[in-house]
Amino acid sequence: MASIRNYALIYVALILLATGKFVFFHFPEIFTYELAVGGTMILAVIKVSLIAGYFQHLKDEPRSITYLMLTAVFMVVLLTLAAGYSIQ
Predict the structure, then answer these.
(1) Do 16 and 1 belong together in one domain?
(2) Rounded to the nearest 10 degrees, how much is the dihedral formed by the CA atoms of 48, 87, 83, 38?
(3) Phi/psi zone of residue 57: left (φ > 0), alpha (ψ -120 to 50 degrees), beta?
(4) pTM (predicted TM-score)
(5) Number of H helices, E strands in the chain
(6) Are 5 and 47 in the same domain?
(7) How many Cα atoms occupy the beta-carbon half-sphere of 57 within 13 Å?
(8) Are 15 and 34 in contact (CB under 8 A)?
(9) Which site among 5, 30, 51, 73 is 20 to 30 Å from 66 CA-CA?
(10) Rounded to whole angstroms, what are the CA distances from 37 to 9, 31, 41, 60?
(11) Based on the domain organization, do 33 and 13 belong to the same domain?
């Protein structure tokens, strides 16, 4: 179980990551659209990892649960890619 200090630090990190998304899209003279989308995706993965790991307490679960979740995420990505391919 994490302490209140850890939760507060993670909350601040999530706020900073959300601010990063704002910075990517509101300064087009610095970041191109492709760079902003790529950076936002990376920030989203970090945010999801923090939320799932700490606020949903998955960090303390057995490794088999982690592997099961990673397999599910991989399958969702495959289905999304297949659906995107079939639309074109």
Answers:
(1) yes
(2) -30
(3) left
(4) 0.71
(5) 3, 0
(6) yes
(7) 4
(8) no
(9) 5
(10) 26, 10, 6, 32
(11) yes
